[in-house]
Design goal:
About 55% of the residues lie in helices and about 10% in strands.
Amino acid sequence: MLQDPSLDGRFGEFGGRFVPETLVPACQELEAAFRDAWADPLFRKELDDLLRDYAGRPSILTECHNLGKQLGIRLLLKREDLNHTGSHKINSVLGRYCWQNVWARSTLWPRLEPVNTVLHLQLLLLCLA
């Protein structure tokens, strides 16, 4: 969510940040870094391209004819389960990959190239998951 919290620290009706006080500075630093990266058009384009090319975004819709007929409606399912390794894992891997490249632009670390390293990162992170 990219909205700012309310005066009482909540994001919408139900959301909030509930972490131990010792983690608040780290969370604030992470939030600032994320907002900077999200405002970077290069980061957004790279992430969008990777999600399209490696994760099959936007996810396909599948019409469920029989169940829709029984319910008397047109039923469409967004098939996140068809994404390679499942939606949450591939999203995490590609997001981390893009984040590493944003971080590499501000340091001396080399950038990773997507042709061969995305799959290596994905396998590594999936093994650690």
